[in-house]
């Protein structure tokens, strides 16, 4: 009896060891059946797909931009004198030719009177010299006077006439200096702060008295990279079919549309970017020089384009690609070239897809090229 018990005990220990070994190797007891889980894992996986097609798309793209005045002028005094009047309020809208500063005129008016008198004196002397020359010339014809006297009279006349020209030039300069005592606006625009007050001595070396900037029209300046430039050329051509809008910092669209009026001739070598300007009408001065916002470029006409969700686009070190389900429900890796990014997280596909392909948009962790899947169409 004792021997039988010992034999059974040995059998039990051996069975327990075998059971543990099988469980360690397979994860199941030897008497368990394999579950259907391993069978299920070999079944085709379901993936979400969309069928791509060409859609009418109005291309648009935006860039950070800065508002800049087309022209900016620093007013300076051309003559030296005491500032007598300031004829504007800082921040005024001024017109071309509008008087802005006045310098005391007393000395300049006196210089004009003196130059006028000098001219009159020179003209009188010239008239006398001309009369003398005429008399000497008559005497020379009758041989009552020598040729040297005639030459002398002619020289006196010519010198007197030259003095008249000199005095006329001095009068012109004096009148111009008197005119410069009133400093006027050289253009329409908005004037800034004045740098001097009434009573101060100002002159050509005093620096800028005030600054005027043009406000209507006004430019929005932005830069694009080389890659962005190529995309813009593909989407918008040379700008003739492009509408330009300005979006302010509070995300509001400026109501008046603009147009591209300047494209720089070369890329900036430091930043590898190209400067572009768009001009906008600004009759109400709503756009201010130095203001930041976004320039939004929109095409005038819709064009047919392949559009897919951005989440469908995969990337590796060499290219962008998508997974396509072919006619046999196999996964195919398809390289693509993407274009402009669109609202709602969509992107234009420039090449690689022609329309009709079933593109995977979800379930990427389950698939690889060559696997058979069950496509689940989604919108």
Name the descriptors:
single chain, about 375 residues, alpha+beta, conserved putative lor/sdh protein from methanococcus maripaludis s2 fold, Elongation Factor Tu (Ef-tu), domain 3, OB fold (Dihydrolipoamide Acetyltransferase, E2P), 3 domains, six-stranded antiparallel sheet, about 30% helix
Q: What is the CATH fold-level name of the largest domain? A: OB fold (Dihydrolipoamide Acetyltransferase, E2P)
H/E series, N to C?
HHEEEEEEEHHEEEEEHEEEEEEEEEEE
- How does the overall form come out from the CA principal axes? elongated
Beta-strand share of residues: 25-35%
Structural class category:
alpha+beta
Estimated helix fraction: 25-40%
Contiguous helical run count:
5
CATH hierarchy: architecture of the largest domain: Beta Barrel
Characterize the largest beta sheet: strand count, sense, and whether it forms a barrel. 9 strands, mixed
Mean pLDDT: 85
Tell me the radius of gyration: 45 Å
Unreliable spans are 23-27, 34-41
User: What is the CA-CA span between the terminal residues?
Assistant: 78 Å
Question: In total, how many domains does the architecture comprise?
Answer: 3
CATH class of the largest domain: Mainly Beta
Number of β-strand runs = 23
User: Can you say what the CATH homologous superfamily of the largest domain is?
Assistant: RNA polymerase II/Efflux pump adaptor protein, barrel-sandwich hybrid domain
